[in-house]
């Protein structure tokens, strides 16, 4: 039924029915108008909503931050080749000079300034594992910066579920997300 509407919503036939929906980690405003009505209706009618991770839980957010760090006493400069580390530092310095041009008037009106966003995104980068630095660098684009302050689809749905007093939870733990990424070797990253 969902495929006719171009939906990624799956229904598990039981009483009451259960639904499975695959989300993507992008600002919800980029995709919300394209989410089919059957998906929005299933969300509205659901009593319980479970996400990949509970992004509204402070422990989850803290654990995600911690899992990104190299072992105690290690820095990125210890694990990256010198030339690559130097290129990374230069690139981050360049992005920092460009970010003021990328900030939207709406963001400024909400107190999101370039220095604040740059520090929020890149904070403690020299202590992070290479895979997480790669993901961080990939998010330092004009379009991604312009959408900062808008929750990703998962978080938006979680916030809506809480607002509507639905029971929420997660199907994975932070460790289940971190272990595979942290297990990648340098050449894979």
Describe the protein:
The mean pLDDT is 90. A hairpin with a 5-residue loop joins strand 1 and strand 2 (18-21). The N and C termini lie far apart (39 Å). The protein has helices at 28-31, 37-45, 58-67, 76-79, 82-102, 105-109, 114-122, 130-138, 142-146, 153-163, 174-182; strands at residues 9-12, 18-21, 48-51, 167-170. It is globular. Helices cover 51% and strands 8% of the residues. It has a two-stranded antiparallel sheet with strand order 1-2. Helix 3 runs parallel beside helix 11 (174-182). With 189 residues, it is mainly alpha-helical. Metalloprotease that acts as a negative regulator of the Wnt signaling pathway. It is a single-pass type I membrane protein. It is found in: Cell membrane; Membrane. Keywords: Cell membrane, Glycoprotein, Hydrolase, Membrane, Metal-binding, Metalloprotease, Protease, Signal, Transmembrane, Transmembrane helix, Wnt signaling pathway. Its cofactor is Mn(2+); Co(2+).
Largest sheet: 2 strands, antiparallel
What Rg do the Cα atoms give?
A: 19 Å
* SSE class: mainly alpha
Instruction: Tell me the number of strands.
Output: 4
Shape: globular
Strand content: 5-15%
Keywords:
two-stranded parallel sheet, 51% helix, two-stranded antiparallel sheet, 189 residues, 4 strands
Helix/strand layout:
Layout: E1 9-12, E2 18-21, H1 28-31, H2 37-45, E3 48-51, H3 58-67, H4 76-79, H5 82-102, H6 105-109, H7 114-122, H8 130-138, H9 142-146, H10 153-163, E4 167-170, H11 174-182
Helix pairs in contact: 3-11, 5-7
InterPro entries: TIKI1/2-like, TraB/PrgY/GumN_fam
Keywords: Cell membrane, Glycoprotein, Hydrolase, Membrane, Metal-binding, Metalloprotease, Protease, Signal, Transmembrane, Transmembrane helix, Wnt signaling pathway
Pfam family, one: TraB_PrgY_gumN
